[in-house]
Specification:
The chain is mainly α. It is built from eleven helices and no strands. The N and C termini lie far apart (about 45 Å).
Length: about 170
């Protein structure tokens, strides 16, 4: 019976998750009686919700409970990092240890390094990643943007051009 009620709320959860962040209907779903709907609404508003809010705590708990899934751990790492949560570094490190060859993990790690002010570390990580994943447009794009931010405009142009070619 519990599975039926959980699955019955899935269409509502999908509808709540499909709403663009900032739409008036999404904040109203944060208090929905169905957990799946609350999580979907929180996911849509995650960047606007400070980590100390109860809705954000429920979202964080949900992501932590699904630690066996790469996507939920990436979502948690990115969310914590955007909010400059001190735990972000540990979550990113765990991702790198568990899934070191996943391009999304490399991007999350490089982004974390940039947020920490470690541009040389981010550049080194992305330079290494393009050798391992030479056909990954997102990694080339991140490398180009990071090079540009570091003042290497010629290197940025090369990397961004490669990203465009791969897309």
């Amino acid at each position: 019976i519990a599975r039926f009620f959980e699955s019955a709320s899935l269409p509502l959860a999908a509808a709540a998750g499909a709403l663009a962040p900032g739409r008036p209907a999404l904040p109203a779903r944060l208090g929905d009686a169905r957990r799946a709907v609350r999580i979907a609404a929180t996911r849509g508003l995650a960047d606007q919700l400070p980590p100390h809010r109860p809705e954000a705590q429920e979202y964080r708990s949900y992501l932590q409970r699904h630690s066996e899934l790469l996507q939920t751990q990436l979502e948690l790492a990115v969310w914590l990092d955007r909010h400059r949560d001190p735990e972000a570094g540990a979550v990113v490190a765990a991702l790198v240890q568990r899934w070191p060859d996943e391009p999304e993990v490399v991007l999350a790690s490089a982004t974390h390094r940039l947020r920490q002010g470690d541009t040389p570390g981010a550049l080194a990580e992305l330079e290494s990643a393009v050798r391992v994943h030479p056909k990954s447009a997102p990694i080339w794009d991140a490398l180009g943007r990071t090079r540009a931010g570091a003042g290497d405009l010629a290197g940025a142009e090369v990397a961004l051009q490669r990203s465009v070619e791969l897309e």
